[in-house]
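[Meeting: bench + compute handoff]

Bench side (C.D.) handed over the final construct sequence. Compute side (W.E.) agreed to return the predicted structure before the next meeting so the bench team could plan truncations. Sequence as handed over:
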Amino acid sequence: MYQIVTWVACMGGKKTIGRTMTMIITSGLDTPEHHLLRSIRMDGTFAMKLALSFVVGSVWITLVTITAERNGTKVGGFIAGLPSTIVIALFFIGWSYSTYAVVEATTVVPIIGGINCLFIVTYIVFLRVNFWLALFCALAVWLILSYGFVRTGFDNYGLSIGVYVGLVAISYVIADRVLGVESESGRPMVYTPAILAVRGLFSGFVIAVAVAMTKAGGPLLGGMFAMFPAVFVATLAITFFSHGPLFSAALMKSSILGAVGVVTYGVAVRYTYVPFGLFWGTVVSMAVSFAGSFLIHRFVAVRMT
């Protein structure tokens, strides 16, 4: 704004008019009242984002755990991998900044999706020792690698896709062949209001904290935390304490392939948000993601051990 005003002020040597315009524009746009209103509007948007994240996280992860318990870990992993928090995070990046900022944010989505696979493998490896050690090591791996890529200014989208594909394949082979994690069938479970409430509150809290982090560092860091494995964290904790390490590890193994849907959503958003806008870009991207997830589950995941 100031650059535009200065340019107008210098045009034709009409400095008096330029100074007058500067005073008018400055007084009209940069008053304390204007800053206060803008701050309130941004805080209101962010509060709505957190509230929506909490509700979606509560419902979604509770649904994932119930589905896994009733239908087995293969189906549960498929549901866990469908896009949820990334939808909210990228939508609000577009709302707060622009659709072009979302395109920038999606650059790191595939490679961090691959790091999510390493998160799962790390959890399964250390789960044989202790749950809390496994969770700590998995989170440490995710934070160090993800933040490292963001700090280097990584912007090679083709490489991001390639690394993701490689990490998915390697991680699944390690979990399936090296660690010998096998799928688990459904488990009988009685769902009391107290159990559902605890699961919902815990899940919503984890998701809301992850989404809150997208506010910290602009679009690129926001894209990083849009891929934070919050669904995995809440799901693995709930299943571990409900059914033990074998069931939890099996669900996480299935989620390696299931989470292809999340990355597919990020890829679709990259190419739909600018031409279609936030709403229709989200709708089209969700359709593409669900179709891709269904095909992966139908022709790949169900054939795995």
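W.E. noted at the follow-up: The mean pLDDT is 79. C.D. will use this when planning the next construct.
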